[in-house]
Amino acid sequence: MFLDRDGATFRTRVSRDIRIPTADPGVTLSADLYRPVTGEAVPGLVTVQPYRKDFLAGGSYAGPAQWFAERGYASLVVDHRGTGASDGQRRAEFDRGEGDDAVAAIDWIAAQPWCTGAVGAWGISYAANTTLRAASLRPANLRAAVAVAHGLDAGRDSIHPDGARGDLHALANRGSAMLLQQLLPPLSGYADPDAQRRWRTRLRTQRPMVLDYARSPADDPVWAERAIDGDRIVIPVLCAGGWRDSFTHAVIDAYERIRGPKRLVMGPWGHVMPQDSAHHPVDFLELMAQWWDHWLRGVPNDAMAAPPVVLHLDGPRPQWRGYAQWPPPGRGTVLAADGDTLVPAAPDTPGRPPGPHLPDPSVGTLRGLAGLGLGEACPPRDQHDDDLRSLCATGAPIGADLLLAGRPQILVRLAPDEDGRIAPPPRLVARLCGVDPSGRSTLITAGTLRPGTAEEEQTITLRPVHHRVPAGTRLRIALGTADFPRLTPLCGDGAVRIAGMRLVLPVTDEHAGTEADLPVPAAGVPRRPGAAAPSWRVERDHTRGATTVTVASEVPHTVSADGHVYRLTSRLRAHLPGGAPQAVVTSGTHTAEVWLHSGERVWASASVRCTQDALRAHGVVRIGEFTLFEAEWTAELTREQHRPCSSAVTAR
User: pTM value?
Assistant: First the structure.
């Protein structure tokens, strides 16, 4: 139990399956309400999420909701329309209409007699996106928000990473995981006739969300339509993200575009709540409570008194540093390629390219698998072998530490082809690494560009960093067209003709920031239940040249709020045959076994398999030995490929 600001302990009351009306007659949303037992009106908090509050990911909001109720906030956890116990059919993911349903929940709680009318919205990942969308609609009672590990443009940030095709996360992993949630019976109110009706209707009529991703490639205008306008967000927003997450750029981009009072906290975390991280966790619920106290209750505190930008600095001397702005003030330091060497240069130096190099579609396996719903389990490894397969330039050992803070850039000058034309490749992937005296290559940051024009010079903006490069380190840039398995390999052969490269580093003075202090988790801080550490394996068949990446994970027996027991397993696999990117296969399977307290056993499995040209999804539900439901869906996929030409990445 926790104390409120007056020193009194709040008991709490939980009401499940509260029905929230929407603008559509006959469609209500299901919410679980966590209320402090008090005769006074209290502020409200709202989380709207698509992961079923009776299941693992959605259920992880129960702990924080209870925690905030004990501190004097009424917390509402809401299932998206068409998911869990909410009515209706699911909209396409990240659809604008999701904001309307979030506003309906905000308006509902604000209108209750036990609520002061001041409401905050928050969430992690998808729920953060829903929070920001609601904020952009400017409902009158939404006074503040907290967004963790997501941003404004889901098409670029999540579905088609960096605007490129990426089957592993959006299609194979997330696609099969969301299909499994659609297949499973209700774990809250299983015997309720309305719950059974919703479930069985969706089995018959609702198509998997992954089909929408398949029919809407990265350049489809629908993704621009589903992006959120950050300029419309004028309420106070606390943005938080992790340097080990794939959404680093998304969180910082949202922070830059939001117009209202704001704060940015970036830690050494993966795709987890900051209190759940294995790397310097902080008591993020306490930070959120401070934010709510200030903006919803008007309590004077340090919510905005501290530096607005607080960044963790990893390395041999880890610390938190506060800055007045993002990016911190600094200077651009330029290094240009002189053959395979990086040398200090003037800003407009074109550089001389490294020697010829054959492209390798398997580059990227050592970068890790951040942001795949795997938390922090698949971090980057030594980049040396991927460096050998890339077009590299490496500098001399630096004489003093460099503090990087901002977005590094790699400028690539393209050479004309035999016909004198500039023919940009469909994709450029660049990594910035630090090579220590032993030869170990550590990934600092990376970036992907899909050139939209035939300009001679292309700029690859890398993901934001706050990183100290120790003295004695050699900086290395590595260029190619692959980031496997995060991105689906390009089809066909193609020459990327490089005439020069240079690196622009955002260097910040060591004295630009101040030391900052964030609270460490206290005993009793709710932590998200999760899977055991997954196994991550990269296999290379040097005889055939094939590369296979496999990730297997398991959630052990877990008890739902209604007393049902379930167990989950998942397996992701990306297989790249040697020399044949056109034959790549990426697949994901999520399986659940549920022991209902009625004695019934439910088994459900969802799988998605992607080739370069097609997607196949399969789902099955069995109760005991009886197959209740089985179906298969297919969709065409659009290839990303080189134009036909020679198979060498060349430099001249």
Answer: 0.94
